[in-house]
Amino acid sequence: MTRMLIIGPPGSGKGTQAERISERLGVVAISTGDIFRANVKGETPLGIEAKKYMDAGDFVPDSVTNKMVRDRLSEDDVENGFLLDGYPRTTAQVEYLDEILAKTEEKLDVVLQLTADDEELVARLLGRAKETGRSDDNETVIRHRLDLYHEQTEAVVAKYAERGILTRVDGIGAIDEVTDRVLLAIEAAKAV
Ligand code: B4P
Fold first, then answer.
1. I need a surface site. Which of 30, 65, 86, 119 has the fewest CB within 10 A?
2. Binding positions for ATP (predicted)?
């Protein structure tokens, strides 16, 4: 059980839980959002391109994101598996990931979906804005990111549900409680 995805609306705790799963299970966690933010900070050409979209709460174009993920998944540290956090977010990204995995005859073991209602998510992200000042954590942009999740990423979730590899986890509650639920869900998926 080593190749996993974690999907959820903005603020559902993907990044938070991905870090914990990575520590507990020893798989490398790869967050497309973190890679973009590191590039924005470093003012690289990728960061300059991505910033325009991120500040508006839009998805970075698939062509840019897909290439970045392909390059990251060709690095040595993913040989024993990975946990992708925040990718795929569109059905085109699902198809692209399918192609990457098909080349090495790999497949996904489990897809975790973290759920939470929109008002809880807005409150969490406004809380984070006070602490970190992330440029995409203001209410207008947060609501736009949530709309995009409903319009585009829920179709991604449906695809993995059809394939029978989706596991839903309630993301509401204390962070430790959610971690316990996530680890149990992974164990249960392993047992299938
Ligand atoms: P991300 O970095 O993925 O941003 P996010 O959706 O807000 O998730 P994040 O991981 O930061 O938050 P989390 O839910 O862990 O993406 C940022 C941007 O990058 C996107 O808008 C897009 O522009 C671009 N992008 C990334 N991937 C892309 C892709 N595949 N295609 C195109 N564009 C892409 O947690 C949020 C907060 O909630 C934290 O402050 C945490 O402390 C708190 N929290 C977590 N769990 C909690 C709990 N149980 N209770 C209370 N608070 C909790």
1. 119
2. 11-16, 128, 173
- Whichever domain contains 8, its CATH number is 3.40.50.300
- Kindly report the number of other CB atoms within 10 A of residue 113's CB atom: 23
Q: Helix (H, G, I), strand (E, B), or coil: what is residue 53?
A: helix
Total domains in the chain come to 1
Q: Is the dihedral of CA 94, 10, 85, 63 positive or negative?
A: positive
Q: List pLDDT tens digits, range 126-156.
A: 999 999 888 899 999 999 999 999 999 999 9
Residue 13 near residue 178, CB atoms below 8 Å: yes
Taking the centre of ligand 1 as the mean of its atom positions, its distance from the CA of residue 33, in whole angstroms, is: 7
Rounded to the nearest 10°, the torsion over CA 178, 182, 185, 191 is -140
Tokens of 155: 């179709």
**131 in Cβ contact with 122 (< 8 Å):** no
